[in-house]
């Protein structure tokens, strides 16, 4: 019984992304290229190229919507998927979160701290 290899493009998006993720494990040059990307769009370009080389036929939209790639792109862009309140992400990697917004005049004095108590 001859088994023909399955065309990866006939698999579901999740299966193709899984193949891509497994292929990235140990792919030194691709991982270095991903690490050197300055934003998620550049990461998507590297991943699209890897998908083409593997014959997976993944599109930009499929990559940006499917975990874990979607999460990698989000992390690289450091954008919150959901924000509540003042639209600032809860976790930001830069140390001056919200300082300019609280002190728009740029004066040297520290912004007032806001406290809501039960008193």
How much of the sequence is in beta strands? under 5%
Number of helices: 6
Instruction: Calculate the mean pLDDT score and round it.
Output: 76
SS class: mainly alpha
What value does the Rg take, in angstroms? 21 Å
| Main β-sheet description | none
Backbone shape: elongated
Q: Count the beta strands.
A: 0
Low-pLDDT segments, ≥5 res: 89-100
Q: Helical content, roughly? A: 40-55%
What does this structure look like?
The chain is mainly alpha-helical and 119 residues long. 45% of the residues lie in helices and 0% in strands. Helix 2 (28-35) runs antiparallel to helix 3 and helix 3 runs antiparallel to helix 5. The termini are far apart.
Brief digest:
With 119 residues, the protein is mostly helical.
What keywords describe this structure?
119 residues; 6 helices; mainly alpha; 45% helix
What's the arrangement of secondary structure elements?
Elements: H1 13-24, H2 28-35, H3 40-54, H4 60-65, H5 69-77, H6 99-102
Helix pairs in contact: 2-3, 3-5
